[in-house]
Specification:
Layout (H helix, E strand, L loop, with lengths): L1 H7 L4 H5 L15 H4 L16 H12 L5 H6 L7 H9 L3 H4 L1
The structure holds iron/sulfur cluster (2 copies).
Length: 99
């Protein structure tokens, strides 16, 4: 979805003010609606084709200091059961919950 965001001329909410955004792993098609209103994407259009959710999560951990439970919540919203998002949310659960 980041391409749509750039085409629309949105400011990147993640880079500009540290708002978590699922745009890099989300299917395009909404014309980057949420970032246009200064909100991060919650992935309501579902995962993009071959999303690299682990890479996005690593960036969120490193750059925005996100960790459990915020990472789990981010991937577990509208499309929590989509395989890519489900897998990534489970990776950030405490061990005793994930098993
Ligand atoms: S705001 Fe989100 S969708 Fe837009 S460029 Fe930044 S990370 Fe990508
Ligand atoms: S949450 Fe849905 S409407 Fe909002 S930016 Fe993401 S895909 Fe678009």
């Amino acid at each position: 979805m980041c391409v749509e965001c750039k085409l629309r001329g949105n400011l990147c909410v993640a880079g500009a003010h540290g708002t978590p955004c699922l745009g890099p792993v989300t299917q395009a098609g909404c014309n980057a609606r949420c970032p246009a209103f200064d909100r991060g994407c919650y992935g309501c259009f579902g995962p993009a084709e071959s999303p690299n959710a682990a890479s996005l999560a690593a960036w969120l951990e490193e750059e925005l200091a996100m960790e459990h439970p915020d990472l789990v919540r981010l991937f577990r919203s509208f499309n929590a059961d989509a395989p890519a998002f489900r897998r990534e949310s489970r990776r950030h659960e405490p061990e005793e919950v994930a098993t």
